[in-house]
């Protein structure tokens, strides 16, 4: 049976693949694309141009991933059209890494378990004294460091947030252009 498979690439249409598997819209599949194997999604529409003469390749496998809901497929179609972004690039944003992440059995994760030895740290007398002083002293700096890009809207939001925060807690914020608040 033929299926439209949307690939996370610059194309604005799904490619036609065939498979003997029973697949439905939203299923994640691996398909050959050039010399690579790419993760794609069974889509709701075939490519509009029927005049092309091409060899139809087979779907390699269906991935063990919960399929996209029809609402998500519809949203990605709308998002692509509204933002003038190719449909494949919209899917790429959804997939993030470009690949689907399959669910594994718990036993497969046990290979990554390891027993960590709890090490006891012994502080020197000077370190112990400094540690107790830091805990005792309420004016010691406690804060967070954020590193992100800022739009005008975000900057206004952060300024209002930090102005409220700075009434109770000292706040220094470094901006990407080298200034700080």
SSE topology sketch:
Elements: E1 2-6, E2 15-18, E3 28-33, E4 36-42, E5 57-58, E6 61-62, H1 70-83, H2 87-95, H3 106-109, H4 125-136, H5 152-165
Parallel strand pairs: 2-5
Antiparallel strand pairs: 1-2, 1-4, 3-4, 3-6
Helix pairs in contact: 1-2
CATH architectural name of the largest domain: 3-Layer(aba) Sandwich
As for the CATH topology of the largest domain, it is GIY-YIG endonuclease
What oligomerization state is this entry in? single chain
Radius of gyration: 26 Å
Biggest sheet, spatial arrangement of strands: 5-2-1-4-3-6
Kindly report how far apart the N and C termini lie. 61 Å
Q: Per the principal axes of the C-alpha atoms, what is the gross shape?
A: elongated
Mean pLDDT: 77
Compact summary:
This protein has 181 residues and is of the alpha+beta class.
């Amino acid at each position: 049976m033929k299926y439209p498979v949307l690939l996370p690439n610059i194309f604005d249409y799904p490619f036609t693949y065939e498979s003997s598997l029973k697949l439905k819209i939203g299923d994640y599949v691996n398909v050959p694309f050039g010399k690579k194997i790419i993760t794609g999604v069974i889509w709701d529409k075939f490519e509009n141009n029927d005049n092309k003469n091409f060899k139809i390749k087979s779907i390699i496998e269906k991935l063990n991933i919960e399929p996209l809901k029809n609402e998500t497929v519809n949203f990605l179609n709308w998002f692509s059209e509204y933002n003038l972004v190719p449909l494949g690039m919209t899917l790429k944003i959804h997939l993030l890494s470009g690949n689907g992440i399959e669910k594994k059995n718990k036993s497969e994760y046990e290979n990554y378990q390891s027993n960590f030895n709890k090490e006891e740290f012994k502080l020197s007398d000077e370190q112990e004294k400094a540690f107790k002083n830091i805990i005792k002293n309420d004016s010691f700096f406690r804060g967070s460091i954020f590193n992100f890009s800022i739009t005008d809207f975000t900057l206004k939001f952060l300024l209002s947030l930090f102005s409220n925060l700075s009434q109770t807690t000292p706040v220094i914020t470094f901006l990407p252009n080298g200034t700080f608040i």
